[in-house]
Structures are given as C-alpha cells and as structure tokens.
What does this fold into?
Amino acid sequence: MDWEAVIGLEVHVQLNTQSKIFSNAPAQAGQAANQQVSLVDLAMPGVLPVLNKAVIEKAIRLGIALAATINQKNVFARKNYFYPDLPKGYQISQMDLPIIQGGTLSVAIGTLQKTIDITRAHLEEDAGKLLHNNQSGLTGIDLNRAGIPLLEIVSEPDMRSPEEAVAYARTLHKLVTWLDISAGDMEAGNFRMDANVSIRKKNAEKFGTRREIKNLNSFRFLEEAIRYEIAWQINCLEQNKTIEQATVLFDEKAGKTCAMRSKENAHDYRYFPDPDLLPMIISDEQIENVRRAMPKLPDTIKAHFINTYHLSDYDASLLTAQPDIATYFEEVAAISQQSKLAANWINGEFLAYLNKQHIACSETTISAPALAALITKIAEGKLSHKLAKQVFDKMTTSALSVDQIIQQEGLENITDSDEINQWVTEVIANNRSLVQQFLAGKEKTLNALVGQVIKRSSGKANPNQVQNILRKHLAKSAK
Amino acid sequence: MIAMIHATLKTLSSYLANKTLSSVELTQAFLAQIDQFNSTLNAFIAVDYDKTLLEAKVADKRLAKGDFHPLTGIPIAIKDLFCHQGWKTTCCSTMLKNFISPYDAHVVEQCKKTNMVILGHTNMDEFAMGSSNEYSCYGPVKNPWNTDFTPGGSSGGSAASVAARLTPVALGTDTGGSIRQPASFCGITGLKPTYGLISRYGIIAFASSLDQCGPMAKTAEDCALLLNILAGFDERDSTSLARPFEDYTHHLTDSINGLKIGLPQEYFSEGLDPKVSDLIDKALKALTELGAQIVDINLPNTHLSIPAYYVIAPAEASANLARYDGVRFGHRASHYNDLIDLYEKSRAEGFGQEVKQRILIGTYVLSHGYYEAYYLKAQKVRRLIANDFQAAFEKCDVIATPVTPTAAFRLGERQNDPIKMYLSDIYTISVNLAGLPGISLPVGFINKLPIGMQFIGNYFAESRLLNVAHRLQQATNWHNQQPNL
It folds into this structure.
C-alpha cells in the first residue's frame, strides 16, 4: 500500500520586543521567577490590556517577507479556557481577522526547491510556566513568560516528509532571525513547533485524520517525532484500525509520541472579539515604511553572491546565515576585489574567531577594511596563508593594523629571488635522494623540497615563488 | 452641622476656601452620619475613620497653603468595585472578601490628586450584577425613604448614601442603568457619561463594552463638578478617549429656549405606571415654560434592547470573571482534590446565585453552535439600536424618558423573579448599548417614594444634559427633599 504523509506546522515565535504585548513589563528572558510581571500580567481585578505597538512592525515585516496579505484591519479575540498558567482565564489572541493572511515560503529540500503555502499568522500573548520540581509537592507558577508577544505562523499541510518539515522549520527560523523579529533561541523557547500529521493513500483527494504533536523545541525532535508518528499511523491503518483525532506529546527519551488524555482534546474556546482592545488599523504608509526599512532577504542576497561573485552555493549559504555577515563580506570583497579569498577567510577564520569570543559580527574590532587589507596582502603574494593566520590572530587581540603587525613581527614575505635562489641551491645539494625521486617522476616530492626551502626562510618565503625557482633549478639538473 | 450635610459642593467648597469650615470638621460630620444611620441602611460596607481623617488633615494642609482645587477637602464615597490601594475592594462578593487592592483605579487617583477625602466603600450588587442591591454578600441596602424598599442597584449603596446625607457625593458605575436607576429610586441625580469618557482602569470589570463610571450627587451642578476631575484620557485604558478638556459646569445655566426634547413613543406605552408618566409630564411642562419644545420620535428597536443586553453583558462577564479561580488571589476553597476541583469549589463558594446565573448564560451564548445565533446577532442588534438614536437626534437635541417603570419595589419582592427584574431595565439599557450619555434626576414622589426621569444625549453631550437637568432643578425643588431617617 502506498501511503502519503501530510504534514502542516504551527510555529509559535516569540517576538524580541522590549516589553510584553499587552503590558509594559520587560520581555527579556532569564530572570528569577515572577520578576517580570506587572499587575496586568497578574490579571488583577480591574486591569486592562494596552497593545505594544512595536509588535505591529515586526508582524508586518514577516508579512512582507512571506509576500502575504497584511489585514489592515485586524482584531484581537479572547480565547477562553482555565489553566493556572493563564491568569485571566482567557488568552488574548486573534481569530477571524488575523494580522497576516496567506503568503508563501520557498524551502530548499536537498537540491530541490519547494514552495510551502502559509495559511495565516496572528499575534497573541504567551502563557506563564508551571514548575513541578522543588516546589514541596505543589505546582509553582512563574508568570515571567505570561504576556510575551507571540506570532503564531500556520502553514498549509503542504509537507510530505519529516525532511520537508524540518527544512521548512529551519527556513522559517532563519527568516525570523534574519528579519530581527525574534532572537530564535530554541532552548529558551523563542521558536516552538507543533506538527499536524495525517496519512492518506497516495493520490487520494481527502486528508486522513490528523493528530497534533505539540511543543517540539528542536529540529532533531521535530524530525524524530514526525517520523515516529508517520510510522505509527501507517501501522494503524495497515491493521485497519481507525485513527482518532488527538493531541499528542513527544516523549524524547522513549522516542515515541503518545496521546494526551482525551479531555484536553475537546476544547470550545468561545472566541469573541476582545472588547477591551480596539481593532488594529494599519495604514498604507505604515506598511510602506516597514517595507523601506526591510533588510534584503537571504535568498536574494545568496543569488546575488553566486551570480556576481561566482561563489559556490555552499559558500554563499554560509555567508547569508546572518545579515551582518553578508554585509561584512560585501564590504571586504569590494575593497579587496578578492571575493573567493574573502569568502574563505570569513567563513573560516573570521567566523571561528567570532564563535570563540562569543561576539556578534557587529561587535568585532576587525573592521572590513582591515580584513580586506590582510586579504590583499595574501593576493599580492606578500604573505603566505600560514603567516596571514598569524597576523589575523594578532588582529583579534590587538588594535594594530595589518601593516603594523607585519612590521612588528617581521613577517614580510621574502620575495628576494637571490635569497631564495641561495636556499634552493642549498636544499637541492642536501637532498639528493628526494631530487632523484622528483626527476624520476615523483611530482609529490616537490612539496617536501618546497617545505625545506620555506623552513630555511623561517616561513617567510613565498611558496609559489619557491616552487617556480625550484622547478627551474631542477629542470637544469635534469639536463 | 445640619446645614453642612445638606450643602452642595459649591457651598462646601467656599466654606473650605474661606476657612469657615475645615475638611476635618466636614469629614467628621459625615462620619457621624455614617455612625448614626449606616447600621440601618447598610449603605457603607467599609469605613476606616483613621485613614479618612488623615486624608482630611492632609487636605486641610493643602487648603491652608492656598493651592487647592474646588473639590479639595470634600468627602466622597466610592462603590466597592473601584480598586483602592490598601483597602479591601470586594465587589461585595465572597470571592473577593479578602482582596486588598495593590493599586488605585484611575478615578480614585483623580480624587486623591484633588485631595478629596474618601469616606469609605459603598455597598453594591455583587460584581455589579443586579438592580436592587439585594445580591450583596454584605446584605441588602435599605432605601432611606422607606427601609422596607430597595434603593435600586447595582450602585445602591452610593445612591442611598447620598440621599441619606452620609456623603455629599459618590462614585458609581453604570452598565445597564446601575447609576441612573438607583438615583431615581433614591431621589438623587446620577450621570452615566459617554462610553470612553472616563477611564475604566481599576474598575473591576463586569461588561467591558458597557461599564462606565459616573458621578452621583444631590444636584446636576454637583455631578458636573465631579465629572470635571473624572473625565479624561488614560493610556492604561485602550477604550479611553482623548479629547480636549471640557468644563462641564460651563453651560449649566445656558438658556434652553428652542431646545428640542424628543419623546420616544416606545417608552411611553403600557407597562409604565401612569403616575410616573404624569410626573414626567409635569417636569416637561416646566421645561417647555423655559422655551423647550417637545418632539415625537421613534426608537423602533427598543424592544430588542433587553434581549441584546442580556446576551452581551453576561457573555463579556463570563470571560471577565474567569480570573476569579482561587489561584492567585481571592477566595480559594479550603479542601479540594485536584485542579478542576479547586476551580469548581472555589467558584461555587465564592460567587452568589445571580453572578453564577449570568456566567452560565454568558458561557452558553458564546459556545460553539450558539455564537452566531446569540452573541453575534445581539451585537448586530446593538448597531441597530445605536442607529435608532442617531436618526432620532436628527429631530431633537435631547431625549426624555422614564428611568424605571415604577418607583422602588419592596425588598425581597423580585428575588424569585429575575426576568421581571431584568425587564425593568428597559429605559436605561439602550443607552449603554449605544454608548450614549444619560442623566437621571428626581421629578416627584409616588407613595412617598422618589421617582426620576432620564435625559439622553448624543455622544459627548454631557454639558447639554447637565444644562437641561440644572435648569429643571432651578425650576423645581425635588432635589432638595430629604428622607426622614
């Protein structure tokens, strides 16, 4: 039997605004319990929600990036249910009129490109957290998270495999961090995924009954959970058992999905427009302002890098992981006119140093012109790659320029042919067997000879030059 | 002493300004009244002599400095749903009996900024749901004119306290008539302003799209003076309106010559006690003698207002009262087996019968399969009712109506007939649904019980309403009557 998996994802993205969505409590993570809670977050009698306008711009940015419709009139609704992490007994969300409708996301799955349709994205407030450990047998309630702004992004059920789902999730994750609307820290819960999974016979028109896997916080668990669920559902169907609609959780240790108690499934949320909040009206001007201030999207820049700088797909991908890196690369490439070298150095040494020092590209002390200067030296043959690394290391810890470091450390490449000729002669004289092997046809021994010359130069001789001079001498020897 | 407790705000203000009287003396006079009469009337459910006298002393210091407001040093009573820092704010419900508010409502802040002296919290129907002040965990309020009768509700305590001279002015709230109807039953003046004029921040919510705070006093002029410090934009309430400052006393004495007063046919039909329509006629006559003209108008969707209200208000209330779950504050059951049990027992024990009833209705009309037929439909009907008024205001400047079909009813009379209780809201409810301002003032007595009439204005027409009421009060004497306590 040919089965087809049908997968849709609902992703809750925490927006990186300063304050919460409906209260002025700070929205920064990591504080001790209940330190970032206002009267509004506590749902004290008599308090009222006030919209933090900063969330609007972030939502619009996503809408533009997804080529979605921005609903210029959109409405907040109350989603009613009782739970201790939900102080008001309702969550302020959006129902009939969400801020974003439709849209598409282009996803690379291996070498293929697939367009995933977005159903909608809406604004809502996050709930608090329940703590069960170290609470003397009670359940603790931490409301720091209550009221943090969320953008819930719902995809159409367009994905057909765990790989596609993960690719979509990764692409979306990159997009929201690229757009600077979320910090995207998955361990901190900035990006939480629910997967809707159903199975049907290939070429069937109708969808099968879907089960929803809730609260997946890593791409790895997303993939594992979906894979398990697909196999589980197929197994059921092959045994002619019906699949009941259910909400399931992924047990990470056991690697299985299991249904929550059925009581949780039957929720009538009794949505109605929140009378404490006015409908949000977004003007054309507002949207235009956001559009003008938008960074170019990663795929656009990547294509540009491939076409203009002739970079490989791999290199271009790495350079467009973050907008700062892409901008940095362009500047270095423009000044040095060495796009390939620039790509190698940024994707290699530069990124490694950023990671090691735990700093962002915007915080580096190595300016783009400075890195460009280093690369230029390499291109001009004035510094070997090995020496350039030494110079770079010095640049990471000092404020000296490339020239200053080269001078200070005496690292200037030796390009004086006389000196090199001298060393080459000496090396040939002292390595008769290697020379014989080379002349007999073993090309590889040349490297050893080059190495010896470089050694005599204390690493300062230009390797290409050494090679050329060696070949000339050896050619003479052959005669 | 006697004169003090009957005096209007202007008089008291001038006495305080020229040092004839101190705020402490004035406050003590009202505290003495409360001492003497509150055990009978049960209008106040919380009084703190020390705190209050301290506020009076602070007011006196400010008065001595010479830098004060017309209302500085004047005592005021506030309904027990205005969050008041450091005081129990209970909505007269078992659910909040132990709730000490950590903050002040916007309107309480405004009173404090002016250095008014808060005498205490007045009794009310639990969570503002009721029209007789019989649904209070602290027991009913008695009508000062006849203690066998209700003072009306839900701001029964505030109305009774003004009528009985336990306070010169009071704050109430009005969701379906809860200022205007008790004002009528107690022979005082009460104003519900345009929705959004006064910030709801700190007012414990009943129905978010209907609730409004308003002044309750002996005269329209006093209401105007109080409105001046209550109205105004508050960024903490998203439904609060930003408008240029208006002095609501400015047009009190304007001529009403040529003023068109609309009489809605639907409001003067069967069900209205002929004695009531008679008193209203007399009042209208006094106004026509001042140059006003009567115009017949229609509000054809009037009959839909009660069903619409009793769908919308409970729906909003069912969500607004969900936070009372025994988890963070308020009443929590002493024994429970699990989370659901905690919720069920705490709410069963904490809420009174009427509140539970409305939560059930509200939950029902929002539920899957019923939302379109009830809640959505009711909101559409609401629009029709608002449109009716707009059409009417093409033909008239203000609309005159009864406030209640009868004078006050006996305590206990309607307890087993909630529908009858709801139906008597017919004259006040449309005003809340449309968000319009409405004022209730006394126009006579029936069997020695006061009866009022209502004027309804278009949006932001408070000054005009106060003007009409003031001119009527200049021509009549009902507002100067006092109960024999």
Chain B has 16 helices and eleven strands.
